[in-house]
Amino acid sequence: MRRVALIAVPYAWLLTLFLIPFLIVFKISLSDMALAIPPYTPTLNDGLAALIAGLDFENFVFLTTDDLYYKAYLSSLQIALFSTLMTLLVGYPIAYGMARAPQEWRATLMMLVILPFWTSFLIRVYAWVGILSNEGVLNQFLLWLGLVSEPLTILNTTTAVYIGIVYTYLPFMILPIYAALDRMDDSLIEAAEDLGCSRLTAFWLVTIPLSRNGIIAGCFLVFIPALGEFVIPSLLGGSGTLMIGKVLFEEFFNNRDWPVASAVAVILLLILIVPIVLFQRNQQRQAEAEQ
Amino acid sequence: MSETVFAPWEDPNEKPLIRFQNVTKRFGDFVAIDDLTLDIYAQEFFALLGPSGCGKTTMMRMLAGFETVSDGRIELSGQDIGRVPPNKRAVNMMFQSYALFPHLSVWENIAFGLKRGSMPKEQIAARVDEMLKLTRLEKFAQRKPHQISGGQRQRVALARSLAKAPKLLLLDEPLGALDKKLRQDTQFELMDIQETTGTTFVIVTHDQEEAMTVASRVAVMDEGRIIQVATPAQIYEAPNSVYVADFIGDVNILTGTVKSAGDERYHVDWAVNQPPVLATSAKPFSDGQECHLAIRPEKILISPTKPEDAENAVQGKILDIAYLGNLSTYHVELPGGQIIKAQTANTRRISRRNFTWEDPVWISWSATAGVLLDQ
Amino acid sequence: MKRLSWFNVTSLTLGFAFLYLPMVLLIIYSFNASKLVTVWAGFSTKWYGTLFQNEAFLDAAWVTLKVAVISSTFATVLGTMAAYVLVRSGRFWGRTLFSGMIYAPLVMPEVITGLSLLLLFISIGLDRGVMTIVLAHTTFSMCFVSVVVSSRLISFDRSLEEAALDLGCSAFDAFRLVTLPIIAPAVISGWLLAFTLSLDDLVIASFVSGPSSTTLPIKIWSAVRLGVSPEINALSTIMIGIVTVGVITASLVSKRNSLRMQREEQAAERPA
Q1: Could you give the count of Cα atoms lying within 13 Å of A71 in the half-sphere of its Cβ?
Q2: Which of A156, B200, B316, B320 is 20 to 30 A from B148, comparing alpha carbons?
Q3: pLDDT at A221
Q4: From the CB of residue A35, how many other CB atoms can be counted at a distance below 10 Å?
């Protein structure tokens, strides 16, 4: 009896506040804006027949006619993909350095990577506004060095979005790679060198393949949230930076077009299913390998 | 010397404390316990012995109530306990990992079970102190489990499981985590405690020496079945199968066919170019039946010349000598290539040893030294 | 002992500089007397003064704190239950759906979670306010709690629970007296994680909050959209300070505990 209650309470909670809301989004994405007053009045007691009769792919058709959405999805994918690669390039050497550091430093280094996790995301993004603006610290520094003669425009460009994503998601990349490298037996490198590898080939043939799972996990952990990111493009990007999270937010709050916003959400979700499933599979494989 | 021997299993009027009746336990398609019937009597120190995966742990967990029975029934004092949950059984268990609660002190660990009942506080304290005394842990009452040694932890686990004075105490590999020296001392301690408290102990172990040392009876298990239930001496001296003979201690097996020599004596034809060997068996064999003769290495004598009065004697040469300190085991190769192990006690210093590698020797044994087995 | 190569020293130095320099600059500029970022006009704490006189910020901070405490507490209870179900309940009807619903919110874009919850609240006619934010935060942070707690439960020695049952505990007592005290550190870190997530959340709160229930991140958001504000720098410094002190204390305490544990274990194995 208690077991039933134990399962039922969190189950019911998640059904009500996670699954049903999605079904509502899905339903609204298939409803007509004209009928939706103001902007949409959902009725849950319509009955199945009415529901099916009311199904309408107009909003999805609309998304294909206006190339804003299509461009936004593409540029989101592009930004997420490139920033993931950049995060990997920045994060791998850090994770590698940590794993090679003396044992007594590692706990401290680990804490230093985790600390930003606990710090407000918004504040960490905001910190870059003061650095990247035309009068910001970076431009002052570059001017003082004499590297540039007039301030570079970085804030409100896609470059700033890249910097923001790399910065905020760096710990997500470092931690799984570090975990994989930390587990690796040092004598493997020595064995490779003993068998005639140079430092670099040993790294390429032994270290990289053995940290592969960490790299994959890290890339997904950056790519998935970056794709739907809202705060970074809104704060650091300019009007030219199209990202789908931002479009959804604006569609909803500025245009008050709930059905279209819902349709945008449904498509974003569909796009996300692929990396999420791949990520889960990678995690599962890793868990099995460890057993 | 008219002390009665403790052997309730030989008394047909004695009621068993535990009775397994045609018990089967399946996990999906896997049969862990296969139609098993077994009686265990009050105050016994009963050992379930077998390799890992033989079902001994499953039997113990069914007694404790952590696994349900698929078929058959288990009785405790004549009552079916199949549906009784673990917290309602007068059975306690000592876990292999000890399962001491890390957040509670030694005292609180021992008191844990007592506090679950309606026992008054003073009585709980008195009982815990009694248990601490029994297991010589008085000095450590206020320590946490991580602050005491492995051997002390083992005693806390024992004290905790005995505190509620269960009808039956289950011990799952109780000494497995201890090193060899400590294990031997602890075996005797366990036996003392069992005798003092008069509790029925059922111990699960894969260590045959441990089972032989502590138990009043041993059940040798394999693949969910009991192969033999008997006292340690019977198991060792009169195994009922090659499996048991081989599992308990070291043994030489000669396989051949029997021919009756009258009066419970049989000739075993075991190799070409070798005369048949003589063996006795109370169990009848028919002529030409396949049989296995199991002989313990310490029952085989080794000598430089053919002993005059030996009932069985074979010549061979020494292939290997394993010097174990108190004993030496000689591996003797016979002309047919078969290797026989013979063991002698090293009563003399090593420098005066008789044999060395490649020496031709004679091995001999009496007709009653081996056991004739049909399986 | 291993020594770091030049390459590793450089990558660690640059990496951590990249991670920490922005925050350090933020802290430095919070003590700038000038309102402009460009000019350093001397050391001053006046922005902290104006921050603490800003009623709107203080109100928002109060709402945020209230929401965070309530939602993280609910999330811890529900998340611990969910973790227990995931790790211990074996098979039951709809288990795959259940574990899917636990893991999905971890990777769900916040805009979608926010949008869907808002549409739910509207369709059942629930007024937006502190209550709706609490519901929303509880829902997504319970999933984080359950991941933290279930990873602890997986490594939990089940024979401890069996021992408790064997000694006469009911299943509930075994959980209350044995399991919970032992997994308490994981439950507490789950609570802290839920608390931080709630304090931090902008996007979901933007969807589900009402006019009377502005949280601190929403307040900060509307301020920083207009550019750098020294008051926000001061607020950020305070928040970073609290987090830093908290994380360092926690890691020192846990390091000290594990060292003590190790010492005591070694001492116990030495014959007296």
Answers
A1: 7
A2: B200
A3: 92
A4: 11
Kindly report, residue by residue over C204-240, the tens digit of the pLDDT: 999 999 888 899 999 999 988 887 788 899 999 999 9
**Integer Cα distance of A167 and A169 in angstroms:** 6
CA atoms of A71 and A95, how far apart (whole Å): 35
Chains B and A touch (3+ CB pairs under 8 A): no
**Amino acid letter, residue B11:** D
B116 touches chain C (CB under 8 A): yes
CB contact, 8 Å: B96 with chain C? yes
What is the three-class DSSP state of B258?
strand
CB-CB contact of B93 with B172 (8 Å)? yes
- Tens-place pLDDT, residues C130-171: 999 999 999 999 999 999 999 999 999 999 999 999 999 998
Q: Does residue A47 sit in the same domain as residue A70? A: no
Q: Per-residue pLDDT tens for B176-215?
A: 888 888 888 889 999 999 998 999 999 999 988 899 999 9
Do residue A149 and residue A189 come from a single domain? yes
Number of domains in chain A: 2
Kindly state the DSSP code that residue C109 receives in the 8-state scheme: -
The answer on A152 and A21 residing in a single domain is no
Domains, chain C, with CATH or none:
45-224 (1.10.3720.10)
Range of the domain at A9: 1-56
| Residues on chain C touching A171 (C-beta within 8 angstroms) | 19
Which residues from chain C sit within 8 angstroms of residue A245, using beta carbons?
109-111
Q: Please return the burial class of A157, using the count of CB atoms within 10 Å of its CB with bins 0-12, 13-18 and 19+.
A: middle
Q: Please, are residues B332 and B316 in contact by the beta-carbon 8 Å criterion? A: yes
- A207 and A168 fall within a common domain: yes
Q: In the block, which residue shows the tokens 């009415």?
A: A50
- Spell out the domain ranges in chain B: 8-245, 250-373
Q: How much of chain C is in helix, strand and coil states, percent to nearest 5?
A: 80, 0, 20
d(CA B21, CA B58): 15
User: Does CATH number 2.40.50.100 belong to domain B250-373?
Assistant: yes
Q: Choose the final residue of a domain: A56, A75, A97.
A: A56
> Cα–Cα distance between C80 and C76 in angstroms, integer?
6
Q: Which range has the worst mean pLDDT, A4-13, A87-96, A139-148, B113-122?
A: A139-148
Q: Which of B182, B183, B199, B184 is nearest to B134 (CA)?
A: B199
C268/B103 Cβ within 8 A = no
Angle in degrees, 0-180, between the axes of helices A67-100 and C6-30, rounded to the nearest 10: 120
> Which structure tokens are listed for A234?
């809104």
Q: Does domain B8-245 have CATH number 3.90.1150.10?
A: no
Q: Does A6 share its domain with A37?
A: yes
Q: How confident is the model at residue B360 (pLDDT cuts 50, 70, 90)?
A: confident
ipTM: 0.90
Tens digits of per-residue pLDDT, B317-353? Answer: 899 888 888 888 899 998 888 899 999 888 776 655 6
CB B234 within 8 A of CB B296: no
Answer yes or no: are the C-beta atoms of B91 and B166 closer than 8 Å.
yes
CATH of the domain at A122: 1.10.3720.10
- Identify all chain C residues contacting B64, using CB atoms and an 8 Å cutoff: 162, 166
